[in-house]
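Design a sequence for this backbone.
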């Protein structure tokens, strides 16, 4: 860390990132830091403690940032969701101490949370569908909320008379449980806001405040499940496309409002269903890319910077996904070759990544240093590159390997 004051350090780091996004040459290759349960290893605590103890998680991440000195950092509160998950009775993940062991990472449970015959319900009235069917399936605190009337269509005296349903036993229980959840969620939000301010004062910009998903991933991950979404492309393609058009508007609205409210212009988008092996190129062009491109354009038109994490290998997609305005987004590739990505996308987007997880976890510092040098000198040439791990710091990574990555940008120039 330099002798700069916090505000000066923050301004320098943010400008370095913004210059990289604009594909301008920077004084050195910038770095970003993202980790989930590696922080527990660094801090000598269990994954469960990290998941539940807001103060401890903040203290550990602050120590990490002061030691590694990255230009961007991933907010720790994405990991510390244990108390809120318990209050809401969240059913879509199992987390340390709640379904998995105290030192295991949390696991997403792939299920069919929306049946195939419910597309029409979603398309007609997404909010009604959420309240009546979806929310009670994914979190026990919502169980009973479906006893409330469907408000759309109620008016005048009908609306007044139907207020009695707020006294239904299930609705009363649900509203009480949600009030308890709200209090814990507010406590988490206040911790996050205070930590973000503190780290900004010390000179460290947060990588984002809000995230979103591609419309296809939104349905595939969180509604239909893997089997459901893949069969929907063949059995009910028109319904899937119509539902994604509907969801695009909702997802975009949330992302823009959240980012504007936070003052952080980066929007993080983890991408799960675009890899080369998940669908054909024709299916990608029909079902995945058009709606996602509209999302990217919507964010860019609102002066926001999409940070797209392309998981797995997306090499076949590169020619297609370059069709967005230049110098407005970050493409973070997990396993695609960044030298090849530089050739195809180097004039369009800032690239980020991607020291391999296996090297970080099982290699030695010299090998990590060599991999970073290769990326800095080849991908970082002429700007437009942020050095990072492939998908955050792997939980098993030795500290010396992580240190080698963040030191490398001070040793090698693009």
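Sequence:
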């Amino acid at each position: 860390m330099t002798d700069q004051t916090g505000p000066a350090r923050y301004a320098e780091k943010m400008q370095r990132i913004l210059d990289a996004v604009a594909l301008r040459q920077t004084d050195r290759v910038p770095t970003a830091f993202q980790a989930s349960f590696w922080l527990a290893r660094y801090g000598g605590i269990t994954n469960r403690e990290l998941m539940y103890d807001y103060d401890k998680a903040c203290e550990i991440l602050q120590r990490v940032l002061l030691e590694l000195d990255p230009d961007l950092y991933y907010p720790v509160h994405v990991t510390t969701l244990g108390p809120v998950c318990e209050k809401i009775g969240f059913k879509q993940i199992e987390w340390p101490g709640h379904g998995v062991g105290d030192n295991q990472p949390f696991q997403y449970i792939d299920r069919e949370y929306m049946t195939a015959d419910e597309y029409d319900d979603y398309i007609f009235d997404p909010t009604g569908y959420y309240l009546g069917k979806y929310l009670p399936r994914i979190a026990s605190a919502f169980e009973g909320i479906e006893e409330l009337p469907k408000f759309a269509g109620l008016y005048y005296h009908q609306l007044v008379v139907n207020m009695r349903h707020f006294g239904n036993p299930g609705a009363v229980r649900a509203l009480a449980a949600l009030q308890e959840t709200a209090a814990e969620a507010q406590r988490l939000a206040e911790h996050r806001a205070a930590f973000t301010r503190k780290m900004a004062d010390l000179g460290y910009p947060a990588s984002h405040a809000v995230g979103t998903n591609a419309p296809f991933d939104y349905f595939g991950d969180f509604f239909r499940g893997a089997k459901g979404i893949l069969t929907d492309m063949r059995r009910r393609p028109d319904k899937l496309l119509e539902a994604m058009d509907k969801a695009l508007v909702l997802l975009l609205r949330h992302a823009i409002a959240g980012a504007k409210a936070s003052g952080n212009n980066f929007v993080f988008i983890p991408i799960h269903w675009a890899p080369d092996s998940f669908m054909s190129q024709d299916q990608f062009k029909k079902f995945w890319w058009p709606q996602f491109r509209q999302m990217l354009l919507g964010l860019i038109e609102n002066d926001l910077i999409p940070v797209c994490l392309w998981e797995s290998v997306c090499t076949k997609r590169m020619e297609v996904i370059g069709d967005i305005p230049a110098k407005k987004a970050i493409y973070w590739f997990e396993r695609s070759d960044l030298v090849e990505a530089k050739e195809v996308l180097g004039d369009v987007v800032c690239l980020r990544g991607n020291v391999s997880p296996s090297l970080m976890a099982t290699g030695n510092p010299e090998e990590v240093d060599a991999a970073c040098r290769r990326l800095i000198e080849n991908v970082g040439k002429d700007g437009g590159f942020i050095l990072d791990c492939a998908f955050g710091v792997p939980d098993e990574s030795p500290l010396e390997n992580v240190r080698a990555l963040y030191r490398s940008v001070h040793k090698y120039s693009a």
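Residues 169-202 form the longest helix (34 residues).
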